[in-house]
Amino acid sequence: MFGGMLNPFDPDAFIIRLDAYIIGIEPRITRSLEVPLGLNFAQLHEVLQAAFGWTDSHLHHFNAGGLTIGAPEFDEDALLDVRTFEASEIRLQDLTFPREEDSTLSILYEYDFGDDWQHDLILRRIPRENGAKYPRCIAGTRSGPPEDVGGSSGYADFLEAWGDPDHEEHKTMRQWAGRKFHPEHFDLEATNKAIARAVRASKGGYRFRLDRTS
């Protein structure tokens, strides 16, 4: 159930529907998320990590409208030629959505600059559902790739070995990925539990910063 007349200028009346997929992999690995407008980009990073099963073991950033958003300390040596804006200080409600009905925004989320996992994020504002708890995942397809698998090409090689009992690296890849891994598996309930844990643990920012001070 949705509320009655909504004030288009009231951020609390809306949420963001975020459809995400990993670029370069077919069939697509997708997640459909619903997140509050008040979520900042550090929290969004934590939600995406949980949703795709990543372990936050590598660097990341967002590209939103040409702005690079992330953790500025990742580029303390000024290796990048662009300024990185602090993710915890920018919220989804700061984005400007087109005024056309059902309009969308696209954001690029990059994780692990070595494997170069690029995620296309398609955002649209929708009315908040009464009684719903956000953020949450509402749908998804396939398991996220294992960490350090070598990007999309490495993942293709991994899947070939993982799925072929006659492949010389079949046993090694099965052991490396773990018994619970299956490329076609997606567990909505487990994903939402992981998202809830990540949001609690991040305490409004990045978990890795909390780990440094604990």
Spell out the blueprint of helices and strands.
Elements: E1 14-22, E2 30-36, H1 41-52, E3 60-64, E4 67-70, E5 84-86, E6 105-111, E7 117-127, E8 136-141, H2 151-163, H3 170-177, H4 188-202, H5 207-213
Parallel strand pairs: 4-5
Antiparallel strand pairs: 1-2, 1-7, 2-8, 3-4, 3-6, 6-7
Short summary:
The protein is an alpha+beta fold and 214 residues long.
Q: What would you say this structure looks like, in words?
A:
The protein has 214 residues and is α+β, with helices and mostly antiparallel strands. The protein has helices at residues 41-52, 151-163, 170-177, 188-202, 207-213; strands spanning 14-22, 30-36, 60-64, 67-70, 84-86, 105-111, 117-127, 136-141. Strands 5-4-3-6-7-1-2-8 form an eight-stranded mixed sheet, covered by helices on one side. Strand 6 and strand 7 (117-127) form a beta hairpin. The longest helix is centred in the C-terminal third of the chain and has 15 residues, at 188-202.
